[in-house]
Every structure is written in C-alpha cells, then in structure tokens.
Write a structure and sequence with these properties.
Blueprint (H helix, E strand, L loop, with lengths): L1 H24 L3 H13 L11 E3 L11 H9 L3 E8 L2 E6 L7 E2 L5 E2 L11 E4 L3 E2 L5 E2 L5 H12 L3 E5 L20 E4 L2 E4 L7
Parallel strand pairs: 1-2, 1-6, 6-9, 9-10
Antiparallel strand pairs: 2-3, 4-5, 7-8, 10-11
Helix pairs in contact: 2-3
C-alpha cells in the first residue's frame, strides 16, 4: 500500500510538472526578457546583506533568466555562487563575473572546479511549479531537497523560489522529504511564506 501511495504521488507530480512546463514553454520571448528585468528590479525584496553568499543558477529549459538579478545582487554586496552537481549532491562555487564558465551538463554552465566552494546563506531555487504554501516541484531528481536539508542543519538559510508567475498552481502534492520554500520571487513580486523568519 505504501508503495502504491508513493507511486501515485510521483505520478501526480509528474503530470503537474508536464502541465506547468508546457505553459512555461509557450511564453513569448519578449515576455521572458521583460520578466527577467522585472526580477532584477525586485532584488531589494530579497534583503541581502553585504557579504552574504547567494546561490543563483544558470537558466536552462526555458527557466526565467536570473542573470540580471544576480548582477544586481552582486552590486548590493552579495557573493554569488552557482551550483555544480557532484554525484547526488550540489556543491556551490563562487562565480567570478570576469572568469571562466564551463559546461556543467544538462545545458547549464558554472565556475570551474578550481573556483572556491562556499555554502550559501540564500538559495535561489529553480522549479517547475509552486503553490501558495511554499511547496514546489522540481525536475524530479531531488538535488535541491537534499541540498536544503544539508544546509539547514548547518546554519539559518533562506530558500527563495524563482519562476514565472504562470508556474503557480493551486496545490503541489508534497511528501515529508520535500523541503519547503521560505519565499517566492516572480516577475509580479516577492512573496514570503509563513515559515520565513521575520514574516
């Protein structure tokens, strides 16, 4: 019965993932560019402090482009890191804006292995779908759930989902191991969820 329930949950997540990614895939390119610039202009909502480490991500598969946002956060004093998949884990390496980027697989780019590894204070999380409770569906491999579980044992950390507003759904089916978000940033604004400190 437990196996059947788990299989049903995965099927529901997969169906929702397909539905929302299909919506995202038909967004017009000018709208995507405009959304990326709006993200940049909403950087103040993240409330980054000088010296804090912020993990961004290199956009793939039609994800919202947060490179303008990362550039603005760097100007606000943040150290920007990008994730690298190492086995089943993520390692976060410092992004040098004038340095080399290398192919990290799955269409993503990142700093080379020689770049310094730093654990982020703020994690900007890519996703397929999200709801008003702070639950998300990723791409099904659990990298960010594992990274969040590890990082939250080390120190206080904020996990902020990054997506287009069309990726919001009424309800994301969630399991005990699914790490919730603290906040969400789309082109329409910054939204805190109840579990975020100071909310």
């Amino acid at each position: 019965m437990i196996f059947a329930d788990a299989t049903d949950m995965q099927a529901k997540k997969a169906a929702l993932r397909r539905e929302v990614l299909a919506r995202r895939s038909v967004l017009p390119e000018p709208d995507k560019i405009e959304a990326a610039l709006k993200l940049r202009d909403l950087a103040g909502g993240i409330a980054v402090s000088p010296g804090q480490v912020v993990s961004g991500f290199w956009p793939i598969r039609g994800e919202i482009d947060l490179r303008p946002l990362m550039a603005r956060l760097r100007k606000m004093g943040a150290t920007i890191v990008l994730p690298t998949m190492v086995g089943d884990d993520l390692v976060f390496r410092v992004l040098d804006p004038s340095g080399e980027l290398v192919d990290r697989g799955f269409g993503t780019m990142g700093p080379p292995d020689t770049a310094e590894a730093r654990d982020p204070d703020i994690l900007l999380v890519p996703l397929a779908a999200f709801d008003t409770r702070g639950h998300r569906i990723g791409y099904g491999r659990g990298f960010y759930d594992r990274a969040l579980a590890r990082l939250r044992l080390l120190k206080p950390i904020r996990a902020i989902g990054i997506a287009f507003s069309v990726q919001e759904v009424a309800h994301v089916p969630n399991e005990a191991h699914d790490a919730p978000l603290d906040a969400m940033l789309t082109e329409t604004g910054y939204r805190r969820f109840p579990m975020e400190p100071g909310a």
